[in-house]
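Intended use. Records like the one below are meant for learning the mapping from a protein sequence to its folded structure. Do not use them to infer anything beyond what is encoded.
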Amino acid sequence: DHFDINDYHVLSTDDVMQGEIVDHGVALKVSDIPWAGRQLWDCDIACKDGKYYLYFPLKDRNDIFRMGVAISDKPEGPFIPQPDPIRGSYSIDAAVFRDDDGSYYMYFGGIWGGQLQRYRDNKAIESPCLPADNEPALPSRVVKLSDNMLEFAEEPRPVIVLGEDGKPLFAGDPHRFFEASWMHKYNGKYYMLSSGCTGWDPNVAEIAVADSIMGTWKTIGNPCTGPDADKTFYAQSTYVQPVIGKKDAYIAMFDRWKKKDLEDSRYVWLPVLVKDGKITIPWHEKWTLSIFDK
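Structure written out for the chain above:
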């Protein structure tokens, strides 16, 4: 109940470092969604064949999070929602990834308010509970999208992440993660940047790597370096943007919440550096795109 997201806006700029930020207005609002109950959450957009698909978590009239889809001919919207949520969908934090063969996949998940603890094997359970610290952590989910981008092509699968010992991470492991995921691909391998869930308190970021889009994944540790790296610079991962025109250059965007003044929450933008197969996100008070030329 600490969020009351009623609509989405789309912002744009022609210069990510110095350009003016343009607010294109409301792209989608709760009152336009036929199956809506309340409370939108973190969304993502994909483009296919000239159409833009907005994937959004929203509580239905039973106060259960579902994933919806809205469509537009323009990236700024307005987006027209489908009449029903995606069949078999649940939880929050959608992240959509296009693979090299043109297939699209959605990663999603989050506990507590994200409701992942209410499900086992994609089925709702009567008595939601979190696993004990010495039990396997609740994993986020991955699912292939249908060709029309409006449905799941299959049942969601768990995102199994192995620790350094080669075993699935336990619920009590500070490095377990399952929300705020973002996917990208580099040199034929899949990299997932993600976060744990500790309420309003920041936690360590993690990157996992896999040879297949479906995993299995192996954690390779915290990519953040510098002051407060163990707290992800008091922020949480949300998006990674490739830099057009530069090889192996990416920009990571993080949410930085102000829990006592949510409307004044900000974003943190930092360079993602790739060298000899190692990925780091160093802290910089100020930086420019020239950092990728070094």
